[in-house]
Amino acid sequence: MAEHIEVDPDLSTQDYSDKDDRPKGSDPRSASEASKRKSGSEKSQGSTKSLSGSVLDQYFENRRQYCSDTYYMPNDETEQTRLAVAHQAFLLCLNGQLTTARLPQDVKRILDIGTGPGDWAIAMGERYPNAEIIATDISVFQPTDVPPNVVFQVDDAREEWTYVEPFDFIHIRGLAGAFSDWANIYAQAFRHLRQGGFLEVADVGFTQLSGNLRDPYIEVFNGACQSAAEKAGTPCGLEHMKRSVLAAAGFGAIRPVTIEVPLGPWSLDRRKHVLGKMALIVVLESLEAVSLRLLTKEMAWKADDVRELCERVKEEVTRPEAHAFTPFQFLVARRLL
Questions:
Q1: How confident is the model at residue 213 (pLDDT cuts 50, 70, 90)?
Q2: Cα–Cα distance for residue pair 236/206, rounded to 1 Å
Q3: 137: buried, middle or exposed (CB in 10 Å: 19+, 13-18, 0-12)?
Q4: What share of the chain is helix, strand, coil (3-state, %, to 5)?
Q5: What's the 3-state SS for 258-269?
């Protein structure tokens, strides 16, 4: 069996995956190196799909680049750098492990949905050299220095999955707000897993403040983004990470892990101190990425007003007395039948 992460009990918190009032080996590549990878695509042998010309288009709005006229997250170099840092933060959060699933060392086929620049898929390819790893995204990325067992494919997970052979492990990370119908995503994942196979969903919740700040801007930010995402039909909370949603798709052995990550160096714990500085970079850079298209398109905000709110939130979150934190949540389930 592959080495399994033992989550630091000081970092792990209670399971609140079913609550309705939820707030929102390490990779040897550095974040800066990962951000320089070139874009591209390659059709996987595991799918019968072909690429349409529209998925290769790029859209420019308010000085940001997007892969489509609907998906709210950008795919420009700034966002690729943020995703590279986020990958390192996830690694540190999990003590250098790439997943909380207890995968056998002889795992054969792995699917990474929404791979982005591909840091996780590449690291998995190095850790499991005998596994075939298919990494998909609606955006066009073509990382360099890719292990021979890792294949990148431009694909839209909202459409029918056409893979011929089942997978041992399907991984979905950072896609809150990407889908309007998570039940369909989970149903397709269930169909394309072999019996005994694993699904892991990982996401980051809304930033919260444990300090006592009066009328915090972060509440305005979180509320505006939630309203805009609801209006767009793609909720950006963590409702898709409830046990009941996976159980309804047929999954069993559902195991949640929630880790509250401090934002900034305010924690006295050495490990949390380092993780907090890295997570703060990810969150600060995510503010504009998450909100700009949502608020301008769905709520008719001006781009300058969105950016001004982001700046106020940055100032607020970085105050030492704010004690800002965000939940990193993982949900692992298996196809038992």
A1: confident
A2: 9
A3: buried
A4: 35, 20, 45
A5: EEEEECCCCCCC
The CA-atom distances, in angstroms, between 158 and each of 74, 213, 284, 298 are: 18, 40, 29, 21
Residues forming beta bridges with residue 47, ordered by sequence position:
163
Q: What is the pLDDT of residues 6-60, one digit of tens each?
A: 444 444 443 333 333 333 333 333 333 333 333 333 434 454 443 444 446 789 9
Report whether pLDDT(115) > 70: yes
Whole-model pTM?
A: 0.85
Cβ contact 22:16 at 8 Å: yes
Q: How far apart are CA 287 and CA 272, in angstroms?
A: 22
How far is C-alpha 285 from the geometric centre of its chain's CA atoms?
A: 14
Tokens 């791979």: give the residue: 115
- Tokens matching residue 54: 């529209």
